[in-house]
Structure formats: C-alpha cells, structure tokens
Amino acid sequence: MDPIRLLEEHYPPGTLAHQVLLRHSRAVAALAVAVAGTLRQQGETVDLKFVEAAALLHDIGILHTDAPTLGCHGPLPYLAHGIKGREMLEAAGLPRHALVCERHIGIGLSAEEILAQQLPLPARDMLPLSLEEQIITYADLFFSKTPTEADRRRSPEQVRATLARFGAEKVPVFDAWHQRFAPRP
Known about the structure:
two-stranded antiparallel ribbon; mainly alpha
C-alpha cells in the first residue's frame, strides 16, 4: 500500500487541499517516525512502517469537511474528519490505519466529553490506545494545516496552550507523552 497514491486518489495533485494535506501529513510523519525510531533504539517494540503510513493518512477525511481555507468544501463539520477518515480507510481495507484517523483529534476524545460538549460525533471513546496511535497523535499536535502556519513547528508551550482551551485535563496527557516521546538533547 502506497499512502501517497491513496491520498492522490482522493486529492488531485495541484489542488489546494492536496498541497495542504501533503505538507501537513509529511511533517507529522517525519516527527512520528523520528519518535518511533528513538523508542525502537531504546528497546521498545514499534511498527515503524505502520507509523509512517498511518501518519501520512491520518487526515485523509478533511476533504469531506467544510474547511475552505484548506481547499475543502464538504458537508461535514471539520471535527468529523476523523470519523470520515476512518470510514474511508476501512473501505480501503486498512482498519488499523482507520483507527488512527478516528482517534487522533487533539489527544483523543472520550464518549463523555462528546456527550457533554454536544460534539457532532458518535458518542464513543475515540482515544489513541496503541503506542503507534499515541505517537502519531502526539506528532500531529505540533503542526497546523493552516497554510500561513504550515511550515512552523509549534513549541510544547504552544501545544499546551491550545490543549488547555479544550480542557485543563488534556495538558497532563500531553505532558506525559512529551516526557516519553520528546527528543533528548
């Protein structure tokens, strides 16, 4: 399976959506692979090939959302790109990759917070469970798809500030991941 070819089946090269998605996904994949490689060197079992492919595909569902600044003009709210990506990758025969799509939003979403905040999503836990899912979710937090911010990597402080807007309880999860995954000097 070639993830870039799969993306291009849905995102014609030369379109804004293709450019935005590929730039973002490559940045996320590069960081995720670096984290996974370091963990492997430390003796952890990590599927590097899966991490790279799933990181490239984690946002495949954005095309179906209403996000004009990203070149996406679909009917769904942006928050639904994870569940739409899951549907797309399950249809492509990639159930493990599909779970990354659904579980990578923020640090993940619980059924309780989906219900409490009345989010436009099915009320089920969408939390990254596997090490690979957590690595990709962590890496995604550092990169925006917004074209004006696409080439900048957010600092840990910026990530914390963004997460805190969605609930103070999200920051300790990021901090634990950052302690485990951040490159050491």
